[in-house]
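We were asked to recover a plausible sequence for a given structure. The inputs and outputs are reproduced exactly as logged, with field labels preserved.

PROBLEM: sequence recovery
POSITIONS: 426
GIVEN STRUCTURE:
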């Protein structure tokens, strides 16, 4: 009895065809836009020592306590597949001795992340993120500019319509201390109605309760105080400066006092790009200022700000996914394969994509080209081989023409009909 076909692990998927094109398009656009803003791309390992995430995300966070893929390797070390990459970027800054040189650094990254959670719309157990981090800049303009880069990516992808930037401030340390005290008083008064998780958070980090998805918690959160009355004059001025810069940079904003980041090292700006086009899973990009994270990694106090975005969710918003270059079909009769191979390789070296079937009659080769939706064909039959020519054929219109079997006459014909770039590679 044959073995049953193997399937991907639950919460993972293969990226093939249109799915891969959408995935690639999002990352390519992000890479192109962040380069315009002066970012360099970093790649960190997909697994780190568990402490990198336990220290940075907090032991009480859902990610650390419920969702991380952690295991002990053969040497007895605790290893975790990265659930996010900001911690890895900051670890890399420290590990590579970059905390004292050439700051600020603007870093872009793209790659897979891993969380053991219920698969849902646009979120898998292996999912992919793009992210941008500004490391070593304390100025409000850094916050505004990294947000503007994110907005620019959404515009460049053609998905900004219906997406709103919601923004809040977490203030400075003095502001947060006063706010925490107010939250403790509020949530203690409603402690019996809090979920078990939020009762733990009340003792350790009450701001995390504001992130709770529990319906009972949400009702209590709705009447909780906001941070604005507790902001110091300095923290308020910082936030107003960020908003002014965003206006200058052309990024539309909406204040939302319920956006928080519950970790101690977060401060000042917190933001999310949200849309109603993805149902309940409406956040497509989120971030904030995290001035204490590099210090958590063993480095010096280093102000940072950044964001991350899910590639899968961004892909779901795309209306049109660009296709790559469609190869030109090489159709060769028996006996013409050597010349066909020479022409095909010359075209490829010149930057023109082309493809040829490994076997089959001329008719079957044409059928294959049509199924693959190729637009143009270069035909080498008996007559063409005898006269050192090729027949150039437009497979959509049927128009065809004989040209010499040489690179530039073939390329000139293709260029004239939009089948190749205007200039060949040297």
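RECOVERED SEQUENCE:
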């Amino acid at each position: 009895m044959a073995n049953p076909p193997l399937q991907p692990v639950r919460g993972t998927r293969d990226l093939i065809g249109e799915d891969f094109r959408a995935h690639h398009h999002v990352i390519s656009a992000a890479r192109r836009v962040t380069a315009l803003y002066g970012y360099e791309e970093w790649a960190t390992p997909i697994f780190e020592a568990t402490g990198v995430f336990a220290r940075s995300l907090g032991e009480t966070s859902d990610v650390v306590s419920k969702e991380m893929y952690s295991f002990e390797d053969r040497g007895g070390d605790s290893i975790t597949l990265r659930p996010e990459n900001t911690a890895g970027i900051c670890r890399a800054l420290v590990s590579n001795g970059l905390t004292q040189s050439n700051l600020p650094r603007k870093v872009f990254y793209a790659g897979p992340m891993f969380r053991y959670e219920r698969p849902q719309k646009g979120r898998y157990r292996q999912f992919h993120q793009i992210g941008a981090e500004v490391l070593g800049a304390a100025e409000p303009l850094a916050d505004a500019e990294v947000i503007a880069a994110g907005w620019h990516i959404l515009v460049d992808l053609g998905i900004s319509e219906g997406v709103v930037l919601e923004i809040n401030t977490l203030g400075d340390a003095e502001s947060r201390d006063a706010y925490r005290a107010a939250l403790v008083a509020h949530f203690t008064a409603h402690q019996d109605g809090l979920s078990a998780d939020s009762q733990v958070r009340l003792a350790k980090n009450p701001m995390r309760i504001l992130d709770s998805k529990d319906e009972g918690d949400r009702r209590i959160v709705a009447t909780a105080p906001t941070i604005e009355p507790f902001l110091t004059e300095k923290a308020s001025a910082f936030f107003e400066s960020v908003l002014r810069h965003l206006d200058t940079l052309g990024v539309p904003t909406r204040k939302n006092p319920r956006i928080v980041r519950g970790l101690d090292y977060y401060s000042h700006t917190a933001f999310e790009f949200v849309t109603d086009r993805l149902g309940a899973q409406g956040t497509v990009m989120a971030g904030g200022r995290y001035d204490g994270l590099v210090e958590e990694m063993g480095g010096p106090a280093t102000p940072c700000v950044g964001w991350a975005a899910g590639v899968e969710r961004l892909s779901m918003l795309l209306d049109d996914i660009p296709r790559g270059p469609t190869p030109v079909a090489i159709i060769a009769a028996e006996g013409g394969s050597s010349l066909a191979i020479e022409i095909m390789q010359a075209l490829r070296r010149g930057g023109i994509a082309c493809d040829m079937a490994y076997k089959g009659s001329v008719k079957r080769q044409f059928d294959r080209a049509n199924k693959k939706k190729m637009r143009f064909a270069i035909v080498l039959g008996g007559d063409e081989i005898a006269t050192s020519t090729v027949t150039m054929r437009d497979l959509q219109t049927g128009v065809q023409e004989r040209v010499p079997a040489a690179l530039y006459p073939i390329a000139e014909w293709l260029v004239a009909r939009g089948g190749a770039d205007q200039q060949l590679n040297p």
